[in-house]
Amino acid sequence: MSLFPIDIEDDARRIVWAFAERGLMISTAESCTGGLIVGALTDISGSSAVVDRGFITYTNEAKMDLLGVNAATLKAYGAVSEQTALQMVQGALFRSRADIAIAVTGIAGPGGGSAEKPVGLVHIAARSRAGTILHREMRYGDIGRNEVRLATLRTAFEMLIEVAGV
To answer: How far apart are CA 24 and CA 21, in angstroms?
Structure first.
């Protein structure tokens, strides 16, 4: 029995099986999801053939230390930005043995939002060693912390499938 909703469990299973079949490995870099992406993947039996590592980088310092996010990027654009998500995914890919990485940074709420960066704003980036790079800016709205985080997982899984071409 999974800790996750059935659709997320099904997507995680699809990713694990498809990536294992193709010999692909994944790394994750997570901020607002706090490890839920790698948790959903590792909830699937056989995921050790697919999941290399997960970076949980909730603070700016962790983003810089573990993923190599540039301090100037954080200062100019903030932690919740396309630029930061792209640097996070690059760091996760190049500081792992993974073929494909996914990164998320956002504001899950209930607080922490602003007019410019409201609760429910999430930036998700995926990148492959083959050169494919995706970015999506999602505005889920103030739908609740858990709902924002679960919606982020769904989008992240869609992007992993798209980058891998499975």
So the answer is: 8
